[in-house]
Design goal:
The chain has 259 residues and is α/β, with parallel strands linked by helices. It contains seven helices and seven strands; from the N terminus they run βαβαβαβαβαβααβ. The chain has a seven-stranded parallel beta sheet with strand order 3-2-1-4-5-6-7, with helices on both faces.
Length: 259
């Protein structure tokens, strides 16, 4: 059957860098892009985690290569992004997924340390990877940047001010760069996940998670990491070329539900 539309929904043979893809949501995102035919650059802090995801993708017939990269290390970020572009022959998509969660009361003795590392990893690192990747993205005919924020970027939770401030910042950064890079046809969008079953939430008591999800979300449950990954993929489709500056909650209806 002849197609009635012109824009492609395929990421086949596109090159995507996903930071923090050694586990959790990043791993699910790496798996999804690989399943859809993209060449996946897996990066994370640990060699074993990176190798495991690369092996999973290659074992399923996909294309992947891995690098150990701490997004808080400027020199390492620049080196790895250059190597990724050289290895795959370019770069089309950058997904800023790496993250940490360091709760702290405002009057805790170590608060300023928690503030500094949270802003470094959750916000400053986004600008670092974007700056390093930009020369390669500018050579792509479908350049996409997707920043992973959180529903904390829309609201707040007590004892989470470093995390919350950083995630608000990611939303602001996304909007500003969408305007700055728009005339170059580079789209910049943001995903705001709600409660997800990942290592970051694994330590929470299951009963507490169930109560929270039923009370706060419309769907009454935590998300599977792959469900969030599909939001990221949608922003990267060639057909999504007119979507930029968008902030997409993937939260099971958390933001629209009254408690």
């Amino acid at each position: 059957m002849a197609r009635l539309t012109n824009l492609s929904r395929s990421v086949q043979d596109r090159v995507v860098l996903i930071t923090g893809s050694g586990g959790g949501q990043g791993r699910a995102t790496a798996h999804l892009f690989a399943d859809e035919g993209a060449h996946v650059a897996v990066t994370d802090l640990g060699q074993s985690e990176v190798d495991a995801v690369v092996d999973e993708i290659r074992g399923a017939g996909g294309s992947a290569a891995g690098w150990v990269m701490d997004v808080a290390n400027p020199d390492r970020v620049q080196l790895v992004i250059n190597e990724i572009a050289q290895h795959f022959g370019g770069m089309d998509y950058l997904v800023n997924n790496a993250g940490i969660s360091r709760p702290s009361r405002i009057d805790d003795e170590q608060y300023e340390d928690e503030w500094a590392i949270s802003l470094e990893v959750l916000l400053t690192a986004h600008t670092r990877t974007i700056r390093a990747a930009l020369p390669y993205l500018r050579k792509s005919d479908a350049a996409r940047i997707v920043n992973i924020a959180s529903t904390e970027g829309w609201g707040a939770t007590k004892y989470g001010s470093p995390y919350t401030a950083a995630k608000h910042g990611v939303i602001g950064l996304t909007k500003s760069l969408a305007v700055e890079l728009g005339r170059e046809a580079i789209t910049v969008n943001c995903i705001c996940p709600g409660p997800i079953d990942t290592a970051m939430t694994a330590g929470f008591p299951e009963d507490d998670k169930a109560i929270f999800a039923k009370r706060r979300t419309a769907l009454g449950r935590y998300a599977h990491p792959e469900e969030v990954a599909h939001g990221t993929l949608n922003f990267c489709l060639p057909a999504s070329q007119y979507m930029t500056g968008a902030i997409l909650p993937v939260d099971g209806g958390l933001l629209v539900k009254n408690a």
